[in-house]
């Protein structure tokens, strides 16, 4: 997916939110927002997937406020919240479809977007969304493609439910390469975050999407060779969240990729329109 006007406004709104996690210096926040707007105007028409442009903006924010990980406290809190909720609900998650749905609901732990608000009561929210079920459900077909999986993680909090799905898949014979972010960017999971919940102990390999660069989604230009090799060898990519969708949906137009199972809550209107569903839909969508 390419960036549009809605993405532009949403991203600028997220800039101020991100700044205020680290500083209350209004002058610095205003200066940072102005620099980000200028950079965004310079690149808004670039022929790149939206996450590549968003990543430049988030890197600039962190440089301006001298804080490489402004979401660090939120990430820890979300992991703790998710651990508590998973303990309460995992008895209801009876198979691949249900566990996928659980990870999709946990994808809503995504802070700072003007298009989406995180629930103050994630436990109640989880049960309400779980009762609604999947808006797109390709889990039955995808379950037959799980021999070798590349699992692209997204947010903290969400990765707690990812771990539960990965455990289920491993117990059913899958070989799984898990990929997290190469450096902190918004509230996405890094190697440090993954190690803190033991993802290294259950995955066959735990890799990063860059070598120490803060980058959302999948940027093929800087994707490490070991991740490229894992994708080439995979029978299925499980793609969590919107940034990974925005990247892979573009790459699949020009690159030979394995089937992709997109697992996410559709949290913004541009992605809803791109897929052809309502905003708020819970999708497990297989694209071959």
UniProtKB/TrEMBL annotation:
Annotated signal sequence range: none
Domain Damage-control phosphatase ARMT1-like metal-binding residue range list: 4-282
SUPFAM superfamilies noted in UniProt: AF1104-like
One Pfam family from the record: ARMT1-like_dom
Matching InterPro entries: ARMT-1-like_metal-bd_sf, ARMT1-like_metal-bd, PH1575-like
Name of the protein in its database record: Damage-control phosphatase ARMT1-like metal-binding domain-containing protein
Organism annotation: Methanoplanus limicola DSM 2279
């Amino acid at each position: 997916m390419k960036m549009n006007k809605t993405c532009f406004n949403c991203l600028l709104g997220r800039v101020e939110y991100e700044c205020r996690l680290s500083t209350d210096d209004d002058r610095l926040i205003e200066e940072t927002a102005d620099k980000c707007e200028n950079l965004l105007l310079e690149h808004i028409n670039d022929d790149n997937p939206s996450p590549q442009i968003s990543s430049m903006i988030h890197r600039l924010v962190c440089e301006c406020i001298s804080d490489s990980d402004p979401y660090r406290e939120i990430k820890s809190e979300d992991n703790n919240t998710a651990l508590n909720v998973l303990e309460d609900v995992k008895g209801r998650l009876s198979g691949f479809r249900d566990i996928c749905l659980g990870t999709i609901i946990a994808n809503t732990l995504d802070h700072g977007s003007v298009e989406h608000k995180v629930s103050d009561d994630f436990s109640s929210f989880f049960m309400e969304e779980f009762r609604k079920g999947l808006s797109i459900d390709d889990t039955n077909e995808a379950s037959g493609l799980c021999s070798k999986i590349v699992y692209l993680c997204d947010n903290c909090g969400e990765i707690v439910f990812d771990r539960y799905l990965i455990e289920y898949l491993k117990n059913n014979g899958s070989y799984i390469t898990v990929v997290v972010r190469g450096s902190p960017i918004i509230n996405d999971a890094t190697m440090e975050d993954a190690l803190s919940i033991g993802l290294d102990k259950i995955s066959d390999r735990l890799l990063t999407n860059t070598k120490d660069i803060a980058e959302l989604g999948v940027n093929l230009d800087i994707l490490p060779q070991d991740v490229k090799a894992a994708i080439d060898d995979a029978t299925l990519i499980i793609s969590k969240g919107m940034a990974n969708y925005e990247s892979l949906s573009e790459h699949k137009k020009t690159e030979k990729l394995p089937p992709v199972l997109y697992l996410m809550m559709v949290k913004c209107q541009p992605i809803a329109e791109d897929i052809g569903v309502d905003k708020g839909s819970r999708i497990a969508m297989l694209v071959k």
